[in-house]
Amino acid sequence: MIGSTLACSRVAKGKFIIESILIVAICLLAVAGPKPFFIWVSHDQKLYMLTLKLIATPASELTIDARTGTYDLTADDINLLKSLDLRGRLEGYTQVYYGDGKPGRAIIIMQHQLKSPVELPQPDRTTVIYVQDGDEWKMYPVNAPTLKRTIRLEVSESGNDVTEYWVEHADGAKSGGQAFYWK
């Protein structure tokens, strides 16, 4: 393509440079594919979502169930969880990954079934912990950057003992599953 542009005597030097840059960009897109471009334009991220159930216990501090240790909790996650002044035992329920790009982490802690659906903003390439406090939700850290895309929690149509989640993707699609079982 560049050779044919050079062969054309009517192409001015300034246009040749612009056309060459365009040709190189097209070739790079063909080699790399559209995925990196889509990730950049859509602000996609590799979202890790973990749901934890907080079970009241007589303990005066937070404990993490040994089986929950198999989930992808980092040392920073554990330190942040312990700094929240939560009391009881945390049990892991669901862990999923969605999307591509830089990592984002949403850790959702529930204590009881929902009374109505809730939509939590997805973290923007950072870690956010959402804690159910009665019928309200608290986000930690409170100033963490978030996206307009959401994680929706709702009572399953199949029964009141199941909480479902729906994760909104960068392309507008949604994926979901069971977040908690309450029996």
**How many extended strands?**
10
The secondary structure category is: alpha/beta
- What is the count of structural domains? 2
Largest sheet: 6 strands, mixed
Indicate the low-confidence ranges by residue numbers.
none
- Number of continuous helical runs: 4
Instruction: Give, in spatial order, the strands making up the sheet with the most strands.
Output: 2-3-1-4-6-7
Give the averaged pLDDT, no decimals.
83
Radius of gyration over C-alpha positions, nearest whole angstrom: 23 Å
What distance separates the N and C termini?
Answer: 67 Å
H/E topology pattern: HHHEEHEEEEEEEE
Overall 3D form? elongated
Amount of beta strand: 35-45%
Task: Summarize this structure as a short list of keywords or feature phrases.
10 strands, 6-stranded mixed sheet, 23% helix, elongated, 2 domains, alpha/beta, 183 residues, 4 helices, 4-stranded antiparallel sheet
Structural notes for this entry:
- The chain is 23% helix and 41% strand.
- With 183 residues, it is α/β, with parallel strands linked by helices.
- The protein has two domains: 2-33; 43-181, no CATH class.
- Strand 6 (127-133) and strand 7 form a beta hairpin.
- The radius of gyration is 23 Å and the shape is elongated.
- The mean pLDDT is 83.
Topology, element by element:
Blueprint: H1 2-7, H2 13-32, H3 35-42, E1 46-55, E2 62-64, H4 75-83, E3 88-98, E4 103-110, E5 118-123, E6 127-133, E7 136-140, E8 146-155, E9 162-168, E10 174-181
Parallel strand pairs: 1-4, 2-3, 4-6
Antiparallel strand pairs: 1-3, 5-8, 6-7, 8-9, 9-10
